[in-house]
Write a structure and sequence with these properties.
This protein is of the alpha/beta class and about 110 residues long. The chain is about 35% helix and about 15% strand.
Length: about 110
């Protein structure tokens, strides 16, 4: 469901479905956080660089943004929606919820 903020809050199972269908995954965590592991196929764009790299995010498929707990990625989704980007999804609970749901995390690099 799209909230007033212009993006959807989605759970790990839905993100896994979107990823399997080719959605773009954007990780907005810090370098140190990314070093602890990532969701396979994610593109790392630290939150502070998002305004500079927003144009790098393709709009041809759904976009899922995630962070550690879902707060920064919600900010990122709201920012992208304010710039006219549609089809934005926030991974509710972040990579913590992803891991707790038993989804795979791969080593960074």
């Amino acid at each position: 469901m799209v909230g007033l903020s212009g993006f959807k809050e989605v759970d790990s199972a839905y993100v896994a479905e979107l990823a399997a269908k080719g959605a773009h995954l954007i990780d907005v965590r810090t370098e140190a956080e990314v070093a602890q592991g990532v969701i396979d196929g994610a593109i790392h764009i630290p939150l502070h660089l998002l305004p500079l790299r927003a144009a790098d995010i393709p709009q041809d498929k759904p976009v899922v943004i995630y962070c550690r707990s879902g707060a920064r990625s919600a900010q990122a989704c709201a920012f992208m929606a304010s710039k006219g980007y549609g089809n934005m999804h926030n991974l509710a609970g972040g990579i913590i919820a992803w891991a707790r749901a038993g989804q795979a995390i791969r080593p960074a690099g």
